[in-house]
Design brief:
Length: 106
């Protein structure tokens, strides 16, 4: 299954947009479209690992209480049970591929 990631990018003025690109019983691939100043509040998944991969832009990613600035071509892992979130603290749009395993049940 070929996915042209940028064709799915849709930004919302009021909040981060999450777009499901593909899901199997073992993994989910999402696209986060994050406008300037938008964020994903810190949260935890008890039994899911999450990988953030920056496609375009740059942002601040928090994992386990540590903040890292990531730009295009960089990734960060949030293991199950570890608090994580992100913030587009710049002026440009941020496009992030997100891998979640196992996928959420909702």
């Amino acid at each position: 299954m070929k996915i042209r990631v940028r064709e799915y990018a849709r930004y919302q003025a009021d909040r981060l947009a999450k777009i499901a690109l593909a899901t199997t019983p073992r993994v989910q691939l999402d696209l986060y479209c994050v406008g300037a100043g938008q964020s994903q509040k810190p949260h935890t998944h008890a039994d899911q690992d999450k990988i953030y991969y920056v496609v375009e832009g740059r942002g601040r990613f928090s994992v386990g209480g540590r903040d890292d600035s990531l730009s295009a071509g960089e990734a960060i892992l949030a293991p199950a049970g570890v608090e994580h979130g992100l913030l587009n603290d710049g002026t440009d749009r941020l496009l992030v591929l997100v891998v979640v395993s196992p996928p959420p049940t909702h």
